[in-house]
Structures are given as structure tokens and as C-alpha cells.
Records
---
Amino acid sequence: MTNRYVLLTRLPLLQGVSSTELLNWEDVLRLDIDEFPASRLPLIKQGDNCSHLLYLVEGELEREHRSEDGRYATRSSINGPAIIEVDRLFGLKPTYQYTYRAKTEVKMLGIRKSLVNSHLMKSEVFRLNLLNSLSAQAQKRTAALLPCQLDSAEERLRHLLSTLFPDQEGQADISIMMKDLAKYTGDTRLTISQILNRWDADGSIRLGRGHFTIHDLNALVG
């Protein structure tokens, strides 16, 4: 049994699938792992058609989302092994929500959507893994969007950030003008500025012109 198949069985959604079963799929699925160097050129662009089940096998990707109104952009990182937006593979709008760039040398694996339907979905283990993954994502996002009584501007700002980064952790960056951030929370520009400057002073964020970096999402909004 090759190391490659041992690696594949450890990937999200493939955990529990036997290497023998993967070996039987090899000719059809073309389980080839592609390598890409670190680059600022996007590997995937926001709005691209989600035509493949994509895996980040190894390495680190930067992901960026720009709002439709152009008022903000969020950036964070994803480390392998990980699956890329499996919730966008089917549904009403099967397009990527993020633009992805290689922060380090990365290894990627792609399986065409048609082959997911014709082969992977026949595996009970794969179907259960997929259902659990989609259910977990839906529950996290629903929890982030549930109505809640927020008594202070700081609570409203934390809640906004939790909706922008519902399933992410670690460091993240958001580019937005202070006036726009105030509109999203329903507070004044001065109030939001005071909160961000206080967070900057206590080390929770690094405040810049037109953007700020959150050092630890879980610590700030978890």
C-alpha cells in the first residue's frame, strides 16, 4: 500500500474509506496531487464555477472574500489537510465565495463533480462524512445569524465579526472604512473608532488605515 493512498484516506470526507476502494477508483477519478509554488496569483477566484471537489492536501492558502457592495473585504488562512468550500459544490449558486492564493508551496487534489456523483456518492462512508460536514457548517452559520439582544456597541461589533468569519479561527484581516463599519453595526463612527483603538491598545487587533488584523478570532469573538 503506497504512502499516497494512506494520505488520501486521512483527507476530510475520505476518512474511513479503505485504500482498496480508493485504488479501485484510481483510473476514473485520476487521484493526482498537483503542486503549486507560493504566489500572489489566484488559484481560485471568487465567483468561479465550483466544478470540482477540491482538497488542500498540504500547505497554506490565503482566502479573501469581497462583499458585493464593495464596502469590505475579509482575509484569513486555511491549512491542509482541508476541503475547499464543499458546501458550494451543489445548490442554487455553485460558485466559490472566496479567492484563494498559495501562501506557501501547496499540494492540491481535485475530483470532478460528475465523478463525485457517479462514484464517491456510492460510498456510504463518504455520504455520511459529507452529511456530517454540511450539517456542522449549517449549524455554525445558523448560530451566528440567530437574533440576539446586544446591549452595547462592542457586543454588536463582536457579533458582526462572528458573522463575517463563521467557521474560521486564528488570524484574520478585514479591510473596511470606519464609517461603513459603523453603518453595519448601527453605531457612530466615533464609537466604533474608540472600540477599535481600545482593542488595538490591549493587543487584540492591529489597527491600520482602512483595515485591521484580528490576532485570534476565537479570543475576540468566540
Note: The two ends are 42 Å apart (CA to CA).
---
Amino acid sequence: MEKRIGTITILIKDRMRSADINRILSEHAQIILCRQGLPFHDREVAVIALIVEGTVNEVNALTGTVGRLEGVSCKAVLAA
């Protein structure tokens, strides 16, 4: 399958999920080119932005696993 470049945005409403998210991201490290995290200490949310390069299946596996966590939202956008 063809590799594609894209972004993944993860919104974390439950900070207790941070360890789960870090574990999942480590399992998919081969497709992550860049990671930026921004904790909002004065709000109930944190944001992780990823730049990825992988097949559609690899990106979907990552977003699906993260998105199934309670208190976490995850969306991907891939270049055509």
C-alpha cells in the first residue's frame, strides 16, 4: 500500500488517559514523524498534534485505538 503524509489531532479531556495514549503512540512510533503536545493547565483539556507518514491502514489503526479511549477524541487528515 502507498504511504501518505497526514496529521492526527488528539484532544484529551481525561488526563488519567495519558499513560494509555503514550503507550499507544509508542506502539505506532514507526509512522510518527513529529509530535507536539500542549497541556492547558487552566482548562480541562490537553492537545497532541502528530505529523505521520504511513499507509491508510496504519493511520487508521492508530486513530482507532486512541479514539476508543474514554475521554479522548482523535481525528486524522491525510493528503490525497
Note: The CA atoms of residues 36 and 55 lie 21 Å apart.
